[in-house]
Amino acid sequence: MADIILNVQVRDRVGTGAARAVRNAGMVPGVLYGADKAPVPIAVKVGEFRKALNTGKLLGHLVTLKYGEELQSVIAKDVQFDPVIDVPVHFDLFRVDAHASIRISVPVHFQNHDASPGLKRGGTLNVDHHEIELTAPADAIPEEIIVDLTGLDVGATIRAVDLILPDRVQVHSHHRDATVASIGASKAMTSSETETA
Prior knowledge:
The chain is α+β, with helices and mostly antiparallel strands. It has helices at 16-24, 46-54, 117-120, 187-196, and strands at 4-7, 9-10, 27-33, 40-45, 62-67, 70-81, 88-95, 101-111, 124-127, 131-137, 145-148, 157-159, 170-171, 179-184. It is 16% helix and 42% strand.
């Protein structure tokens, strides 16, 4: 099961006024969707919700909802924040089977910049996708995808199909042919090559 457990209350009223009342009571309003069931308005205590957010594993990870004795696996898909005071004001959760494959975006990070001949010579890393859409089991979603830049020279292209992924995880079909990043010549490199010629 998931590391994060959210104790929820079911809200009996919906709408702007009801959501405001929930916030005034020290809770964050949300909605539970999915599994061919009607949406359920819910709420979580602000402190508990912030604690889950601060783990960095709330969005895009399997979370367990607890309502009384009932447990439900969910994925948090969206959290809205107050634009002025940056506190959570609403969230959306989706019911999932813990072992079912789901479509989800995962961040891409790059390492070993100093081991790339192209970057060492002054080239630039041009990132086309900071996130890549994957199909992964809900209980095995990777936190990030790491791209190793070791040995890559100017002109190298990193494509989504070339990413090293955990078992049972695949790049989603519409991202399969995407270019994730490339190493290009910087303006300084181009002008020095022009001067040399």
